[in-house]
Amino acid sequence: MTEKEHKAKQTEPMGEFEDMHIEGVDADEIAASKEAPVEKKGRKEKKADAALKALQANYDELNDKYLRLFSDFDNFRRRTMKEKLELSKTASEDVIIGLLSVVDDFERAIELSAKTEGHESVIEGIRLIYSKLIKYLQQKGLEEMDAAGKAFDTDFHEALTNVPVPEEDKKGKVIDVIQKGYVLNGKVIRFAKVVVGS
Q1: In Å, what is the CA distance from 83 to each residue of 29, 88, 90, 139?
Q2: How far is it, in rounded angstroms, from Cα 156 to Cα 143?
Q3: Which domain holds residue 155?
Q4: Averaged over 11-36, what is the pLDDT?
Q5: Sign of the C-alpha dihedral, residues 77, 79, 84, 88?
Q6: Is residue 25 helix, strand or coil?
Q7: Residue 117 falls inside a structural domain
């Protein structure tokens, strides 16, 4: 056999002799060497899967942080708008509380003028000024409490005294209003000072 033929024979596939046992070489080693590229491919896929899972976990974490931040900002925005609205409703609270004593004086003047005769034009002028002031305050959200005859409620009334009453249905109810109470846009700015039946 020539040298060329010998080299050609070595490069040819073994064909039918492929499964034969060659002395000094274990068949399991041959099989392992054939599967090695597949095993390398499996390792690469596992690494890619692990990297993908890590990226997905990172994405989920960042997305969760973003959603929480967006939710916090939205809550802050709503709370700020609500506070501004409440502030605009009650911004004039101190001024209106100061004017309530003037309203009380007008009511006393009208009550006393009803008992005196004469000066009808002056009395009518007082009533007009009073009604104009009350309408303006009502436009700003002021409401007068209707306390007389109602059940005593500590959220709206301040009891100055208790008086015994013979009727059972008047017990625990407001018998007399000493000073009117007022509510400004749903908030009590002055409690009604009342006498309660007991």
Answers
A1: 79, 9, 10, 21
A2: 12
A3: 143-198
A4: 50
A5: positive
A6: coil
A7: yes
Q: Which residue among 70, 91, 112 closes a domain?
A: 91
Looking at residue 17, what is its pLDDT? Answer: 46
Q: Are the C-beta atoms of 130 and 110 separated by less than 8 Å?
A: yes
Q: Report CA-CA distances (Å) from 117 to 107, 114, 121.
A: 17, 8, 11
Tokens standing for residue 111: 């009550």
User: Taking Cα atoms as reference points, which of 184, 185, 165, 188 lies closest to residue 175?
Assistant: 165
Residue with tokens 């409690």: 191
Question: What pairing do the DSSP bridges indicate for beta strands 157-163 and 192-197?
Answer: parallel
For residue 180, how far is the Cα from the chain centroid?
A: 35
What value does the mean pLDDT of the chain take? 79
For the record, the structure tokens of 17 come out as 């002799």
Please spell the DSSP secondary structure of 165-194, one letter per residue.
-SSGGGTTBEEEEEE--EEETTEEEEPEEE
9: its two tokens: 């024979």
Question: Which helix (DSSP H) or strand (DSSP E) does residue 67 occupy?
Answer: helix 27-90
Q: Indicate the number of domains in the chain.
A: 3
CA angle 188/192/195 to nearest 5° reads: 150
Strand partners, 129: none
Helix (H/G/I), strand (E/B), else coil: 19: coil
Q: pLDDT (tens digit, 9 = 90+) per residue, 44-68?
A: 888 888 888 999 999 999 999 999 9
